[in-house]
Amino acid sequence: MNNQNQKNTITPSQLALFVIQTQVGVGVLSMPFSVFDAGAKTDGWISILLAGLVVQIIIFVYMFISKRYPTSNLYLILESVFGKWLGKFLILIHVVYFISVGVIILILFSSILTVWAFPSTPQFFKVGIAVFTAWYLAKENVRVIARFHVIVSVLLVIVILLTVTAFTHAEFRYVLPIGHTGITNIILSAKAATLSLLGFELFIILFAKTEGTLKTKVKAATIANVTVTLIYAYLAFTCYIFFSPEEIGLVPEPILYLIKSFSFIVLERTDLIFLTVWMVSVLTSFVGYLYIASLGTAILFNKTNHSPFVWGICLITFLFSVSPHNVLRIGEISELISNIGGVFSFIFPFVILAVALLFKRKESNESKTGKKGVSST
Amino acid sequence: MIKKMILLLCCLILMSGCWDSRYLKDTQLIYSGSFDLEEDGQVKTSVSIPRADTGQDQQAQARVVTAIGNTVRQSRLRIDQEVSGRLDAAKTRVILIGEEAAKTDVYSFLDVFYRDPRSPLNAYLAITSGKAGPYLEVNVENHPLVSEYLRDLIDAGEQATIFPVTNIQFVCPILFDPGQDVILPYLNIKEDSEDIHGNQIALFNERKFSGTLGTEEGTMLLLLMDKLKRTANFTVKVTDDKYPRVNNFITVQVAGIERDLTVVEEAGRIHADVNLIIKVNAIEYPEDGFAEREITVELNEKLGEHFQDVANRTMKQLQEANCDALGIGRELMAFQRDVWLRNTNWKEVYPNIELHAHTKTEIVKHGIIN
């Protein structure tokens, strides 16, 4: 136990799977629908590929930032680039944003579980189990979390295997002709698609904790991004050839619905099996956000260890997610949060890089030695 | 260690999920259901429930409960008030919809299934000649549960390419697609017998039941749709003068098909042509003679003529029923979108398009004798 605790770094492959697990989460079930609904129709899978391209650009921006700050994570970079007070303020905003993402994850998690599997189990219970498990994992150091994320990555294979059955009843003519909705619609939907890919902001936080050169880190990040983009594009494509375009508008969780349509000799409701697998995915992404939120809080209070802050954040997310809300509110809030997320993940990196370049900010020796303890937490 | 044990114990208690447990002893499983339309527009639902009180050595028995309501769900809730325990449709095998009900809008009866996560989306769906309710009360020997009988009947039909392979979910994308129409199994009870016959196909115009196809035409339609399952059989009269009468016929089994669908627009008219090569095995032909080339060629020709006739009839009936089972509209949408956009009133265009089938038949095998 103590031995492990001393290892505060992760390997590049752990980095890749950590981020993949954070990206693939609560949104994966509705992603084909939301991209379809945003205007791209059955060309939504192209939008997802485009979105992957955008994320790749952000990864390169991260690379340039990381070049200037090789041992600092996002929060320390913020402090260094924008000065102490503005930096702290920005850290606070980030932490609040990450916490609200956690709340949204929990709300969507419990509402999907309510609709699909556990209609009479009270909400606090479903959320409580998730929060408790997440707390148990998130209080550990980054290597322990990363290891767990690596182990459960096997489940992604199950997700893909379960959806393969759809090809026995596929109608490829639904997606033809490719690109008929027009470039504008596809690009507009790429925005919705990027929102489903959120979670990659973890790269800039974890780069500092990853072993190896910057090149290997970026390589791992690229592999992670390509993997997630391809999985998403595949899932969306599968849904589009299974459901007719007019039907998909009626099915907000197309992946579950698709799996539910098939039954095997022994297994009647395969969607329940999928849900169990999906629950782990949700948990890992919640843990990801929990970890970065508590890390930010620790830095906010100039502390070195994130663990003491985890339970507090858990409590906040729990209370917010069991507070009364209805379907429309959830939709509103989750849209708002993901729009804010878009700003945080896509615009902020450019701002940081621009300011850093403009004012020639770089990781100073002083901050390196002075904040060393913090950055390696 | 003790701390861990306590934690594990807590987990054990918490993970059992008490709220959503459903005990089999408290539920009444619906094995099959039927929907009919009353004269005043209300829905009459009948369900077949296996009897709980049948002992081990007794044969399983089922009873049929019926109720009327304004919606499908309401009628089912009323059934729930009539039976002990909680009704559970999750294990339903077959859903029958009466002809009259299907003529209005078949989706209205199915919405309840699409909306409920526990519903049996993989249940078979069939249209019945006349009211559907009586079909659940048919007594079939060796099959104490009519639900199982119906399920096996439809399954056998699917395997023999008499019925399309469907279930509640598979029809849904097509019901919503403007460029395709649904076909479903069509059951009827012959006047002279008590048995249920399953050998026809119900055609739909959008969501409305609009006609039927006979056995031969139905199988031909499935072949034209490139949906050959395990087998497909045809018995064809090839001569007139042989004695006994049996010798005039040949029975063939379709061994394989090659299908090619082309849709083009020429001079403002849409031409849809299906080219179908049918490869058959002769499984009965008392006249024999496959050793001689001429006889085989002649049989090929006669079979071909017959299949061409059947295919022509099938196409005509499809257009009469305004049922785009072949998905010509979808084909246009996918490959010639500009033509489709000029013909978005597809349901008015479709009955008048040039829809033709061109079949070619060859006998590839003839069993172990000539």
Could you characterize the architecture of this molecule?
The complex is a heterodimer of chains A (377) and B (370). Chain A has 377 residues and is mainly α. Chain A contains 19 helices and no strands. The longest helix of chain A has 33 residues, at 84-116. In chain A, 51% of the residues are buried. Residues 366-377 of chain A have low confidence and may be disordered. In chain B, 32% of the residues lie in helices and 30% in strands. In chain B, the strands form three sheets. An eight-stranded mixed β-sheet of chain B has the order 4-3-2-6-7-8-9-10. In chain B, strands 11-12-13-14 form a four-stranded mixed β-sheet, sandwiched between helices. A two-stranded parallel ribbon of chain B has the order 1-5. Chain B has eleven helices and 14 strands. The N and C termini of chain B lie far apart (81 Å). The chains are: A mainly alpha (377), B alpha/beta (370). Chains A and B meet through helix 13 of A and helix 6 and helix 9 of B.
- Counted by DSSP, the helix tally of chain B is 11
Structural class by helix and strand composition of chain B: alpha/beta
Strand runs of chain A, count? 0
C-alpha-based Rg of chain A, rounded = 21 Å
β content of chain B, as a range? 25-35%
Assign a percent range to the helix content of chain A: over 70%
Largest sheet report of chain A: none
SSE succession of chain A: HHHHHHHHHHHHHHHHHHH
In spatial order, strands of the major sheet of chain B run 4-3-2-6-7-8-9-10
Domain Spore germination GerAC-like C-terminal (chain B): 200-367
Main location (chain B): membrane
Domain Spore germination protein N-terminal (chain B): 20-188
Protein name (chain B): Ger(X)C family spore germination protein
Question: Which descriptors would you attach to this protein?
Answer:
heterodimer, A: 377 residues, mainly alpha, B: 370 residues, alpha/beta, GMP Synthetase, Chain A, domain 3, globular, palmitate (chain B)
